[in-house]
Amino acid sequence: MEPIMAIVTGCLYASAIYMMLRRSIVKLVIGLMLLSNAANLLIFTSAGMTRGAPPLIPLGAMQPDGIIADPLPQALILTAIVIAFGVLAFAVVLIHRAYNIIHTDNLDEMKDTDT
Amino acid sequence: MSPYSECCEGYALINQLEGSEETMQLAVLLIFILAACVPWLYGKHKDRTSKLLALLPAGLTLWFAQFIPEIASGNTIIHEHAWIPGLDISFTMMLDGLSLMFALLICFIGTFILIYAGNYLKGHPSLPRFLVILMSFMGSMLGLVLSDNLITLFVFWELTSITSYLLIGFNHHQADVRKAALQGLIVTVAGGLALLAGLVMLAYVSGSYSLQEIFNSNQVLTEHPLYAGMLICLLLGAFTKSAQFPFHFWLPNAMAAPTPVSAYLHSATMVKAGIYLMARLQPELGGTALWMTLLTSFGAFTMFTGAFLAIRSTDLKKLLAYSTVMALGTLTLLLGIGTELAMMAFAAYLVGHSLYKGALFMLAGIVDHETGTRDVTQLGGLRYLMPITAICTLVAAFSLAGLPPLFGFVAKELMLDALVQSSLSKWILLLVIASSVLVVAVAAIIAIKPFFGTLQSTPKKAHEAPLELLAGPVVLTSLSLLMGLMPGLAGQWFVLPAAASVWSQPIDGYLSLWHGFNWALLISFISLGLGILVFKRWESVRSILSLLNPLIQRGPEAGYFRFMDGIVYIAQWQTSLLQNGSMRSYLRTIILTFVLLTGYTLTQRYQLHWNWDVSVYLHEIIVALLLVTAAVTACITHSRLGAVAAMGVVGYAVALFFTLFSAPDLAITQILVETLTVILLVLVLFRLPGFGNISTTAERGRDAAVAILTGILITLLIMVTIDIQLFPPISDYMIENSQPLAYGRNIVNVILVDYRALDTLGEIFVLALAAMGVYAMIKFRPDTAPGANHYAGTLILPPKNTFTSENDDVTPLTDPDQFSSPSAQLNKHKQEDV
Amino acid sequence: MMKPGTLILHVAARFLVPLQLVFSVFLLLRGHNEPGGGFIAGLVASGAFALYLFTFGAAVTRDLMRVDPRNFIGVGLLIAMLSAFPAWFHGQAFLTAQWWPILLPGGTEIKLSTPLFFDIGVYLTVLGSVMTMLVALTETEER
């Protein structure tokens, strides 16, 4: 399954980067969302994928039965998902604020706003 | 092997015996600790503070004085303290003749400077700050001359640069003062960088950062291929610090400092640091043709430049500053000559100069303080109003001119003697004679102009200075006189041990006032006569020299300004090139750099093999196809709603993958976040304009190429990494101990709240910060506050009182037309921005 | 959408919110052993309030929550930080888990622990953060 997931992740990255390179700030937001999903999948895939063996220990046992999925990348991704949401919210509101003040959604026109 | 190195081995035993002592470190640290206490002391004792502070350097002078007999017999005292042993950096302190002479001068003169400064700046609101920096400077300087470790020495070296920057820029509300301070800082710190390079090379070549070890090893550093580069780097550091030509220009500008600072920095400390460094390294690096050529030529030229520029000045402090440049040149010249006699002359001249220059600066400060001007052309006849000041100035200036029976005479005779006996070229001798003529004239100007002749009216009614101001000059000039009358005693205990450290052998000689009739005496007489002549004709000399002004204006200082302008120009150029404000070009640069570097490493280091022999189920393929289709749709759709919907599909498809591949926690989180994201986008995204179609096809093609390249690289990266296991996974430990130790069966959760709880703590802080950021951006609308539009577009919050109170945030002060039509807002902003 | 919605949405919200909140607490408490935990439970609870927010608007939701959502953030972070300290009293590293099993009269054992408090802190922070953002956004929307 990993080769297929590698291609899928590659596609996600490509679309994320493409969207982030657009001028429209709304597209930048879409690109950010795609990028966080892509990054999560990148970690998830490179750690190896296991079917039907969640990292849980059966009740009463000390060790899991047989091989289980690696829990560490899952823990990393879990927080990453939540933080990505927080950062997305921040970015969206920031962009909205910027738009309200500068009145353009064109990133190239936002570059001379320092003064 | 010289007899001296045998001594050293003998004293190695003593060193070991005293190795456990760390009193010298304590002495240095005590100054810093006391510096930190100054604000508190000032709060309690007000104007008495500086006198209380002076007790410490006074005590330290006595403490260092107790080492005189031991050091004079040729010993070296070492107090060891490990600091960063792994990097061969220690806080070990070394006291030999040279260090002791410097330490005594620093503490002794520092005592009087503190007393003087307390009165000079009496009632100044920033006096505590001044005292803090002055004490810190004193500590740094003492640390510098005592350090045995090259890195520690460098740290103290830079500390003196920084503290002197703060001292020179004490009156920082004046633009020219700031400029002068910055100039001093930039020149000395630039030299400091070169010095660091030189010290690292020195340590590399000699194999140790410890000065003692470098001295005791029998390596010949001068024949190493790195010698020339190392020497030039070290000398750059020393020359900039000690204001050698062409770096001399910062020193007179540093006269913008309050007089106590000038008196301290330019007599015994700061500018002598470079001299100290050269003297310190003389035994190891000196004696070569390169060393001699560089030091003698730069020294002689600096000497003449200083004397020449001094005679043009009318400002008392400028006169003194340029004569300091001259003295520094002389010291460098003597180090370059490198004979036994030259070393004696070096040590004597250094002490003599510190004494009379410290006194003269303080006296110039008194004249300035009491009369309100320090322009010698506007001063005159003060001898009846300020008799003690006049006498002291006369004596100190005699010492500067090198008249018997003062110590300056002893030093000058030795200097001339060393010069005559050396095999230096004639033009250096000529420069030296010319500068001694000029120095006599300068001394006469300083001593006679303000105090003799007719009394001139001054901005302030002149009267004799109080005791605190006079204490320093009186003591220092009496010492000049005393040491001049008893040169043998001063030489044996104080001067010659220092010379022996530089010469690295016991000195076979003595200091005396009378050397008999020789060339040196003749030169002295000639320069005295010519000097008085120059003084008599000073006005016309000055007007003739003023013809040279255009040449002087094109001197090294102009080069400095051109250099600074060049830096600004380059900064502007590269900023407009690299930081052009276009986020997309930044992104493209970053991404392409990542692709190129990672791609290169990937192809060079790792084998790629496609392992298609894997089990894949149909439903997984379908989800994968769905995911890719949704992502591509999000890219190419022209409607925002379509893009948001496609993003939803992407999110849920990812959640499906999490479910299929054993990550239930992730799947739940992803679904919940996806739902909240849709709410968020509905609330905000649809308030923004729709997708514009701004880019040209060529731009799209270029961006698509960048994107696809990245995608391919990521795919390859994953394919490579899933087959590589560089380290055993740490999750094995986490799985094994999840239930036995952490009592949790959900290992992901155990990792989050137990194994890696600190990470999670950081992450919830990030989340909280993001939330507060969103809240701040929404709630605080600075552009709605009356007259506060200059905050618009920034995240800086205007003063709190423009808002209603904190508790009132149920009805926030939001802009009523914040979400209204863009054209209405455009009008509003046009009104505000114009 | 922000105006009082349909009848079905009203009724559903009134019934679903308490259920979802109870469920979120359930997810929080069982999180150490089964899928769940502070992050997930916090998101579920936020989802519950978000539903209410959409149905009845910001003011009513504020009343329902009684506490400003920003306070949840502060309290959550504080609890999470405090759970780090008990380990110090045992001379252990920062954040080392401490367990205090309590035997209830019925014979069942409840394990109080610092990870549990930590998870509660996470729960409150997530809930507070999400609700702070959503309520603030909705309020600007309503004006």
UniProtKB/TrEMBL annotation, chain A:
Record membrane topology: Multi-pass membrane protein
This entry carries the following GO cellular component terms, namely: plasma membrane
Q: Which residues cross the membrane?
A: 6-21, 28-49, 75-95
Pfam families in the record: Oxidored_q2 (PF00420)
**Keywords per UniProt:** Cell membrane, Membrane, Transmembrane, Transmembrane helix
User: Primary place of residence?
Assistant: membrane
Q: What compartments host this protein?
A: Cell membrane
Q: Does the keyword Transmembrane apply?
A: yes
Q: Does the keyword Cell membrane apply?
A: yes
PANTHER family of this UniProt entry?
A: ANTIPORTER SUBUNIT MNHC2-RELATED
**NCBIfam families the record matches:** PRK12659.1 (NF009302)
Assigned protein family: Belongs to the CPA3 antiporters (TC 2.A.63) subunit C family.
The name under which this protein is listed is: Multiple resistance and pH homeostasis protein C
- Which gene does this sequence derive from? mrpC
TrEMBL record, chain C:
Membrane spanning residue stretches: 7-27, 39-60, 72-95, 115-137
Reply yes or no: does the keyword Flavoprotein apply. no
Signal sequence coordinates: none
Is Magnesium included in the keywords of this UniProt record? no
Q: What is this protein called?
A: Multiple resistance and pH homeostasis protein B
Task: Kindly state which keywords UniProt assigns to this record, in alphabetical order.
Answer: Cell membrane, Membrane, Transmembrane, Transmembrane helix
Q: Name one GO cellular component term.
A: plasma membrane
Main localization of the protein described in the UniProt heading: membrane
The subcellular localization recorded is: Cell membrane
A Pfam family the protein falls into: MnhB
The protein's organism comes out as Nitrincola nitratireducens
> Where does the source fall among the domains of life?
Bacteria
Q: What is its membrane topology? A: Multi-pass membrane protein
Q: Which family does it belong to?
A: Belongs to the CPA3 antiporters (TC 2.A.63) subunit B family.
Na+/H+ antiporter MnhB subunit-related protein domain residues: 8-132
